[in-house]
Amino acid sequence: MHLRVLCLSLLLAACGDNNTAVKEQPLPEVFVVEATEQPYRPSKGFNARIQSRSDVDISAQVSGRLIAIHFKEGDQVQLGAPLFDIDPAPFKAALARANAELSRAEANQKIAAKNFTRGEKLVKDGFISESEFDSLEAKKLESAAQQESAKAAVESAKVDLAYTTIKAPLEGRIGRSAPAIGDIVGPQYGALTTLVGQDDMDIVFQIPEKLILSAQRPDSRITINDIEVLLELQGGTVYEQTGKINYFSNRVDATTGTVEVRSNIANPNDTLRPGMFAHAILRLTHPLQSLMLPQASIQVDQRGTYVLTVDSSNVVTRKDIITGERINENVLINSGIDAGEKVIIRGVQKARPGDKVTPTAFVPATSTSTTEE
């Protein structure tokens, strides 16, 4: 009797286990995002420095004693503003002498011209010889040449006198004065000061030669006109003005394999100064449409980079992809999937290619601060 009860109990237990096995397991839940094309502006950064196209050394053209300095060091000066005065007295005297020499040369020229005119009549009447007439003609020509030389000397003296007042050749910010009042200055003295034009700045940086070759390919869709230059200053501040590339060096630096590039940029508020270091960012003027996926959806194994997708039948499929650069939380997808495909971003560990899953649209969490904004 006891044996029969025991067999019956084992039979019932076996039936119970079998019923549990038959019970259907729920499909694993995964969260998916849709591969979409998004606006993208490719950019590339390079170390840069600021230069001025109007960085002028102010030098003396004539020698003399400095008698006045008309500017305050570091001030903004206007075009034509007086900067230095050299003692003009010796140059005024030289101009007076040159004018006196010109007057004498003009008088000699008049006398020689009259004598030549008289000689023309006298030689015809036989009162003077041909040789004497030739001498009169030579004196006329010589006096005319002396007159022209005297005129040139006057002009030279006027120029030297004008050089005693040194004026600003352009509008800009003046540097410190090297000489003091009373110093003897001249062409051999060197720069008296420097003047930097405010609104004529260049961003100078080096780019790899392979980028130049890539941009020059016949099939390249991007030209220099499609690129703008942004400037990131020290501390991470992005400068409010943008520039355009206007110069490529005609040679490659053999030691670095780079090409010097320049971009002119406006400087209306005098923010930029020559010698500043910054970060030049090349960026497309107009965005491209590019396929992107969140970084969290990208998987890597020995076979390469891939994502897991869910098809219309909710079946998981592996898609090998080629990625581009990372843009914030997203990654550019160059090939491997198409726009509109559903890619698993969470629950990858629950999914295997060929398995059936329950996909749920992934909704990124939004912070309170972002919502308030």
Polypeptide structure, described:
- One of its GO terms (molecular function) is transmembrane transporter activity.
- It is a lipid-anchor.
- Pfam families: Beta-barrel_RND, BSH_RND, HH_MFP_RND, RND-MFP_C.
- InterPro entries: MdtA-like_b-barrel, MdtA-like_BSH, MdtA-like_C, MdtA-like_HH, RND_pump_MFP.
- It comes from Marinagarivorans cellulosilyticus.
- The chain is α+β, with helices and mostly antiparallel strands and 373 residues long.
- The chain has four domains: 94 residues, conserved putative lor/sdh protein from methanococcus maripaludis s2 fold, CATH 2.40.420.20; 102 residues, Beta Barrel (Elongation Factor Tu (Ef-tu), domain 3), CATH 2.40.30.170; 61 residues, Beta Barrel (OB fold (Dihydrolipoamide Acetyltransferase, E2P)), CATH 2.40.50; 74 residues, Helix Hairpins, CATH 1.10.287.470.
- Helix content is 28%, strand content 35%.
- Strands 1, 18, 19, 20, 23 and 24 form a six-stranded mixed β-sheet that branches. A six-stranded antiparallel β-sheet has the order 13-16-3-12-15-14. Strands 2-17-22-21 form a four-stranded antiparallel β-sheet, with no helix packed on it.
- A hairpin with a 2-residue loop joins strand 18 and strand 19.
- Helix 2 runs antiparallel to helix 3.
- The longest helix has 37 residues.
- It is elongated.
- The two termini are 80 Å apart.
